[in-house]
Design a protein that fits this description.
6 helices, Ribose 5-phosphate Isomerase B, Chain: A, alpha/beta, globular, 5-stranded parallel sheet, binds D-ribose
């Protein structure tokens, strides 16, 4: 899988670990920054990652801030993005299976490294189920286009 990844200062430390984790499992990773732990504004990185994912069909994103909340709110403003704010294996699994999420968001201040690894495992190993979920996801995307 190809991942674009970004964070703010509150997600900077785990971002480095997540990049190594993804690469060691054979995924392609593009680090969209930041490149230091200096204070930054999370919407700037949400925009960079979301635009890259929206532009490249089949790619995915990971966005990390303190809570995961700000990143997910900002990412979902970009047309074509379904960013899921997840907390554990189950929510990350359902984000792919039922919502066809293309960006995984979480918070370094609220989720430990073991839980974060399990979320990434779930996100990477789960396919969208389609079927009855397809029409629902299409309705989400129609909302994004019409408002
Ligand atoms: C930064 O202090 C913090 O507000 C940010 O990382 C994030 O949690 C916002 O949702």
């Amino acid at each position: 899988m190809k991942f674009y990844i970004g964070s703010d200062h509150a997600g900077y430390t785990i971002k480095g670990q997540v990049i190594e984790m993804l690469k060691s499992r054979g995924h392609e990773v593009v680090d969209m920054g930041p490149q230091s732990a200096d204070r930054v504004d999370y919407p700037d990185y949400a925009e960079k990652v979301s635009k890259a994912v929206a532009k490249e069909k089949g790619s995915f994103g990971i966005l990390i801030c303190g809570t995961g909340i700000g990143m997910s709110i900002a990412a979902n403003k970009i047309d074509g993005i379904r960013a899921a704010h997840c907390h554990d294996y189950y929510t990350a699994q359902m984000a792919r299976a039922h919502n066809d999420a293309n960006i995984l968001c979480f918070g370094e201040r609220v989720s430990g490294p073991g839980v974060i690894e399990s979320m990434i495992d779930a996100f990477c190993s789960t396919e969208f189920e389609g079927g009855r979920h397809t029409g629902r996801v299409e309705k989400i995307m129609a909302l994004q286009k019409s408002h």
